[in-house]
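Support case: user asked for a sample of complex input and structure output to validate their parser. Sending the pair below.
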Amino acid sequence: MTGIAQKLASNQKQVAISEFFEKNKHFLGFDSLARSLITAVKEAVDNALDACEEARILPTIRIQVTKVDAQKDIIRMVVEDNGPGIPQKSIEKVFGQLLFGSRFHAIRQSRGQQGIGITGVVMYCQLTTGRTTHVRSKIATEPTAAFVDIGLDTRKNKATKANAGREIWYNEDGTGKEHGTEVTAEMKAKYQKGRQSVWQYLRMTSIVNPHAEIIFTDPDGEKHHWTRVTERLPTKVESIKPHPHGIELGQLQRMVAESNDLNVNHFLLNNFSGVTNRARKELCEAAEIAGTRKIKTVKGDDIRALLEAFQGERLFNGLPVKLLKPPTNCLSPIEELLIKKGLSKTIDSRFVSTLTRVPSVTQGNPFQIEVGLIFGGAMAGDKPVEILRFANRVPLMYQQGGCLLTKAIESVDWRQYGLDQAGGRGVPKGPAAILVHLASTNVQFTSEAKEALADNAEVMEEGRKAMLEVGRGLRKHLEKKKKMAKTKEKFELINDILPAIAKKSAEILDRPVPELSGSITKIMSAVISETTTEWNKQTKQTDVEIVLFNYTSRVRAYTILATWPEKSGAVMENNETGGRKEALGVWAWKLESLQPGEKKTIAYSLGGLERGDWTETEVLFRGTQDVIGATKMDEKFLLEIRRQEQILIESGVDSPQDEAEPEAEEKKVSKEPVEENVEPAVAPPEGQRTLFGGEV
Amino acid sequence: MSRTRTAEETKTAMHIVVAEMYDRIVKGEPPTMTLPVRTKTNIGFDKKLGVYKYGKKQSVRDATSLGSAKQLLRTLHVVEFIEEMLDAGKSSTLREMYYISEGWGMGKFGSQNDSNNLAEDLEIVTKCLREDFKLRPEEDGARMIGNLTLRERNRRGEWMRINARDDVGDSGYGVPYNVELEKIELLEHDIDFIMAIETGGMFDRLIENGFDEEYRCGLLHLKGQPARSTRRIMKRMSEEWDLPVVVFLDGDPWSFRIFASIAYGAIKTAHISEYLATPSATYLGITADDIVAYELPSDELSKKDVEALNAELTDPRFADSWWQEQINMMLELGMKAEQQSLAKYGLDFVTETYLPEKLAELGLA
């Protein structure tokens, strides 16, 4: 990203924009006629989603692609949103200025890290068809919409406008449009179907934007409608300052040059995340630069020294300077439940398992991995699974093989989880699709084409761990299905067949129908659980019922545990059996005694969820006799949940401003790698001695 | 000599099976049905009867799995169905019963094989015959040609006198499925022995060559593994007319099995071996020796053939030294031969040379 930004922002060489575009169109996303159309749609849709998100509007986006001239491959694209609209005077800035959007400086997760924005589309249209791009936009406070044709003066790198005016904007149904933007562009392009198509891009976009409604009319006039499955907008992300671990020399040079700070101390404290007062002092010492030095006097070698101190190449007291981790509230994961909904609405299936890992940091950049696995249904069983890759909610559609996210999938032996995979390597086969989403403030691509993520050990490891977990989910689901089939058979036996045998034999012998309970106990000789998870239309709650039958001749005792979506904000209600919280998202009930032939029911409702959020409850047990229909508690599973929970709690109090010297001191003394973000909420006064007597 | 049971006797025998299930439920146990193990590990030679019968090994079918429970329920439906037929004086084929089971809900059969096996199970545990149950087989009876006369009661209930040489066409007399006394009476004959033949081709060859008249014998086409009625009529002719029975089959492991079922009793029907088996029957050929002695065109044994031969080595019915020798010889040769391979020496070789030589060994020619 910075590469292009620099190239373009540089005033040293006056390159004609058209020439630049021509030379670089392969990484601007306009290298083939088919891809150009996808890129154009992508830029327009990304803008619409971003604008709606910022204005907290649930997006409804209509995309229409029509063939204007099939022989000359001229295609018209119309993208209309219900976003806040753009004030008339800003339209030319948004559409006509290359690369100067604010998001190129802010460090946060944003869609616009890819491509060169909608301006690239305006330019492409102009270069290939000579046509301007028609924009119509209305903001809520004005009665009419503004319209204008935008072109580009490629020599001056400036927007040209023509035919500007105002009009009343009517919706299809004749009502007046309240707010929104519509872009109409004609370009040389080709419409294709399949894996790399506008359709696929929109389908993938819809999966990771379950809050959006997307309506696509293809050149054949066929309408594809992806509905909105949640009213919840993505959380608003904060921008953060760069973290010293993620800074490159050029960037540091620029920051120093552009700085208005008084001195080095202020520069370090004001412009970086993770730099505490202590770290500031230590960085200066390590770089051998006085903190009070005027920033204007910091040049060449000093900047290099500072960078070396950042990167731990220059030491303080023989150790790299400890920095806080960057905050992670700049990330906006899609979150497990919404991925589940997004996948379920798009792909017909039997089972979905999703996972959002807790945020992590690589090279000073916070990132977070999310994975979804969808299985069964109408998907083909003998083909490689469909891989759905996303970076910051943007679909990645090309270069699948070279992408880190694909490699993370390939690194897992899927055979143990119930998918086919030759030799336990490579993309697995089976009726499944795997979604991987990387949310990060700085997505590293293999090339400027921005279609494949570059190798990174930490991201890879997080991805792998997430895969293993959803894989386990799939295996459990398959095992459960098998067990349920067995249980169903047993129930058929005692509920249908046995009574029929009793009745028929009694009839033939002309004797009374015998009592069955004794035979039933002997036949089942097991404790059986049946679980139902159902949406209750009346109460708008998800009702869960766990029934246990003791079909053995002894009294049994168990702790029954059930999973529930606590992390996603669900509330447990009407839980009359009581019990207690075992861990995040795991509730436990103690059943002291279950008499032979006895049946006990645990019932509760989950509030705060939408329909389809929670459809399968996993039931576990602690106890000696096996429970058919439930899984024996694996204590390791609990440990992992508790660990993740701990990280979540800790990251909640994490704040870079809080000085945490004793903790840091303690770490230095013990020389042990301790999690950076375990910080006391209030910083102790300076000069306080630590428990270990270390000098602060 | 008929062992036919009355309707009441049959019902009583079936009620014992039903009562086993009922009583187990009353006792608070899963219902069961006890029946002998029906494999070669559980057949033994009955010295008194001269045939192989089921031994003492019992297996218990209990309702702890869905499959077995369904089988018990089906058994009850079959019992009920048989009682209805007994009361109404009707009969049905096994295939008809299979289709009737469509109306038995959870007790319906999964396949025709299921219903055949269940009928056999019931025979075994009740010691009744399927004729007692009014169940008829689908299987094809044999064809017979020769100077022998019998009386068959036709479907109008009239007795017809039939000579199996003069009163039949080229296809011979068709043996009906029921050959018990109420249906067939053996009247008289002018033959010296009965020859059972495996293939239709060979049966027709012998007829064309006039072998039955020249050698004063009755010819019987087995049609592969012989049906119950085929075995039963052989048994009756052998006993009632005191005639020797020789068996002329292909020279392969499967023919050995056919012979064993004729002479010693089949594993599947070991409960009624004494009614079906003809212990005096003799294996005429093709033997393993014949393949060598007559230099017969032969085929290599397949993997399945070898497996079958090895299984026969441990089958109690082949325990005698002559059979052990023949089986081992065939294994060593690695070859098998068909009856019709005798045609290598011309169409008349079988009737002019091979059979006379083989029969002479037995003193029949």
